[in-house]
Design goal:
Blueprint: E1 4-5, E2 8-11, H1 21-30, E3 35-37, H2 42-45, H3 55-58, H4 70-89, E4 103-104, H5 110-116, H6 122-131, E5 139-142, E6 152-154, E7 170-172, E8 178-181, E9 199-200, H7 204-214, E10 216-220, H8 232-245, H9 247-250, E11 256-258, E12 262-266, E13 271-275, E14 284-287, E15 291-294, E16 307-314, E17 339-340, H10 345-349, E18 355-364, H11 369-373, E19 378-383, E20 387-392, E21 395-401, E22 409-414, E23 420-429, E24 447-456, E25 459-462, E26 467-468, E27 471-474, E28 483-486, E29 493-497, E30 500-505, E31 530-531, E32 540-543, E33 553-559, E34 569-583, H12 589-596, E35 606-610, E36 617-626, H13 645-653, E37 658-662, E38 679-686
GO molecular function: beta-galactosidase activity; carbohydrate binding
InterPro entries: BetaGal_gal-bd, Galactose-bd-like_sf, GH, Gly_Hdrlase_35_cat, Glyco_hydro_35_CS, Glycoside_Hdrlase_35, Lectin_gal-bd_dom, Lectin_gal-bd_sf
EC number: 3.2.1.23
Length: about 675
């Protein structure tokens, strides 16, 4: 075997339970991946010294993250050596007969180095040390133009400046020795979802356009409960098949680039061409042995991959809850620490909890003017974030919270105080830790002040330096479908199942933004295509099956804001419907393979529908051969429609787990518009 193209995808293993890993890896293989990569999560593996970037390292004196800094380099070197040693002891590197063929050190450090200058020369030191660990496989970096030899730079080029496909191939022989390493590039799927933000998504067509030149795919990302994320999964699977059909040409020669946007790999025995139209306004036609339509800013992504519609089915009856209301914290309990001044929150909690109470007592003299005038004083609190609830004498006075772009917040409003001692209790909540950014070890959380009380006889009193100090059970539902909790009726807090954290919920923070039509022409960014505006940023919370006992499962909800726990439900995630959307005359992968073998029989495209195991097609919700419009879940007939479209699918598909129909006029009762390019759109219900 000569050179090969290896297509790699990423799995973040902490996002799923170990019981889910075998199935995820199998889905990666089924999707056309040859290699799986993963980060090694420092904070997960070493939450305390010796036991990522871990919280404890933030508070080692003199530490600056990701710089040429002694304490940081020492900690990073120790952790890197430990991980490499563990891999070597299990004989996992390729030179030991194992499966690991590449190692990466650091991640996307180049932009940080560019910003901070000389202190960023950590790379020249730490990366050469990594090479010296003797893994026997190549070391790579991401977004690092000055990676020291022999470390190879791998650019992240998903949004702008995409380079041709040949620059993203890893060419390796059958013995996995490097012949010509052009390090693989990485591409992102959608974008980050933030509390209070709409949900970004990236159309399969645009992702395929990038992957056609980057050859990468994300297998397990966002909340997909371990199921294939169609249409992206199916779309990329077919793209990977097409790339592998081109493999002999791609690894044999460098391309010839022509002005129409084509990169052609032409050897004596094979030819592969990548035709791309980068224009954001106009489509074009290319004629060689056949006519190919190139949509604006893309490639013909008419592979007919199946789309799916998620269905969440409530399990059993409503929960029967036991409710416990916690009083606002008191500064006189035994577990309270008394200190002068305001302290940074993460330094106190060390990420063991999201919450920290700040408490103090304020004495109001009986002769204060506001007690007679009724003009209540103004309490002003400045906090580094992320959420704050203010209690005066045990009563909630107000709530404020920040955002991802601006986590800092200010509470400023009139408060009811009485003559004598008033108890001020501030519940500060963090909703995560930073993992990227310049000097993010210096980013803080919690009430750092100042805290002032304005409107007293003395004017404004600064309090900054003062002395501060639900559950139910359920049984496991039958089946093996993924489970989730519907938390849309609640406000903000956390959820546990059998003592395991399901995560933070914040449905009360409604997503802002504009969710119009998705126009992804031109350079893609995560602001172009958004969903869930006016709704909770996240509604469903995955409960892994491996956490659930046959009966007596304990569900605990800690709720900060209040809500309706009776509306919380446990649901099964299943496929509600499947779709196909295919143009007539599109090339078939089998056609390409036959052409590669010297055969030129033309196979017409087919629409393939299949429901998951245990489900069958029960109904054809929509079918139209002609000029249908819309997308899966919202198809509608256009001005050209073959009236036997439904009949054809009902006869062939209903009652079966899978079926396929040829996309041809005779199947649907004739050509409804002979002079026009037609397509077929169909949606089938799975039950």
């Amino acid at each position: 075997m000569g050179r090969r193209i290896l297509i790699s995808g990423s799995i973040h293993y902490p996002r799923s339970t170990p019981e889910m890993w075998p199935d995820l890896i199998q889905k990666a293989k089924d999707g056309g991946l040859d290699v799986i990569e993963t980060y090694v999560f420092w904070n997960g593996h070493e939450p305390t010294p010796g036991n990522g970037i871990p919280v404890w390292l933030k508070y080692v004196p003199g530490t600056e993250f990701r710089t040429n800094n002694g304490p940081f380099k020492a900690a990073m070197q120790k952790f890197t050596e430990k991980i490499v040693s563990m891999m070597q002891s299990e004989k996992l590197f390729e030179t030991q007969g194992g499966p690991i063929i590449l190692s990466q050190i650091e991640n996307e450090f180049g932009p940080v180095e560019w910003q901070i200058g000389a202190p960023g020369k950590l790379i020249q030191n730490g990366q050469l040390r990594a090479v010296g660990l003797g893994t026997g496989v190549p070391w790579v970096m991401c977004k690092q133009d000055d990676a020291p030899d022999p470390v190879c730079d791998t650019p992240f080029l998903v949004l702008v400046g995409l380079t041709p496909a040949m620059d993203s191939t890893v060419k390796i022989s059958n013995q996995t020795k490097i012949i010509n390493l052009k390090c693989g590039q990485k591409t992102g799927l959608d974008g980050y979802t933030e509390f209070g933000g709409s949900v970004p998504y990236r159309p399969a067509e645009d992702l395929a356009f990038s992957v056609a030149r980057l050859y990468r795919m994300v297998v397990h990302c966002k909340t997909i409960y371990g199921l294939p994320r169609d249409p992206k999964w199916g779309h990329l699977r077919d793209l990977h098949k097409a790339i592998k059909l081109c493999e002999p040409a791609l690894v044999s020669v460098d391309p010839t680039v022509t002005t129409l946007g084509a990169h052609v790999f032409n050897s004596k025995s094979s030819c592969a061409a990548f035709l791309a139209n980068y224009d954001t306004k106009y489509s074009v036609k290319v004629i060689r042995q056949w006519t190919i339509d190139l949509p604006l800013d893309g490639i013909p992504v008419q592979l007919g991959a199946q789309s799916t519609q998620m269905k969440m089915t409530p399990v059993g009856s409503a929960f029967s809850w036991q409710s416990y209301i916690e009083e606002a914290a008191s500064s006189y309990t035994d577990d309270t620490t008394r200190l002068d001044g305001l302290l940074e929150q993460i330094n106190i909690t060390r990420d063991a909890t999201d919450y920290l109470w700040y408490m103090t007592d304020v004495k109001i003299d009986p002769d204060e003017g506001f007690l007679r005038s009724g003009q209540d004083p103004i309490l002003t609190i400045f906090s580094a974030g992320h959420s704050l609830q203010v209690f005066i004498n045990g009563q909630l006075s107000g709530t404020v919270y920040g955002s991802l772009n601006d986590p800092k917040l200010t509470f400023s409003q009139n408060v009811k105080l009485i003559a004598g001692i008033n108890k001020i209790s501030l519940l500060s909540a963090a909703v995560g830790l930073p993992n990227v950014g310049l000097h993010f070890e210096s980013w803080n959380a919690g009430v750092l002040g100042p805290v002032t009380l304005k409107g007293l006889n003395e004017g404004t009193r600064d309090l900054s330096g003062w002395n501060w100090s639900y559950k139910t059970t359920f049984d496991a539902p039958e089946g093996n479908e993924p489970l989730a909790l519907d938390m849309s009726s609640m406000g903000k807090g956390q959820v546990w199942v059998n003592g395991r954290s399901v995560g933070r919920h914040w449905p009360g923070y409604i997503a802002r933004g504009s969710c119009g039509d998705c126009n992804y022409a031109g350079t893609f960014d995560d602001k172009k295509c958004r969903s869930n505006c006016g709704e909770p940023s996240q509604r469903w919370y995955h409960v892994p099956r491996s956490w659930v006992n046959p009966s007596g499962n304990l569900l605990v909800v800690f709720e900060e804001w209040g809500g309706d726990p009776s509306a919380i439900s446990l649901v099964k995630r299943s496929t509600g419907s499947v779709c196909a959307d295919i143009f007539e005359g599109q090339p078939s992968l089998k056609n390409w393979k036959m052409i590669a073998l010297g055969k030129f029989d033309h196979l017409q495209p087919k629409a393939h529908l299949w429901c998951p195991s245990g489900q069958k097609i029960s109904q054809i919700k929509f079918a139209s051969y002609g000029m249908p419009q819309g997308t899966c879940g919202s198809f509608r007939e256009g001005n050209c429609h073959a009236h036997k479209s439904y009949v054809a699918f009902e006869k062939k598909c209903v009652g079966k787990q899978s079926c396929s129909l040829t996309v041809a006029p005779e199947v649907f009762g004739g050509d409804p518009c002979p002079d026009s390019l037609k397509k077929l759109s169909v949606e089938a219900v799975c039950s």
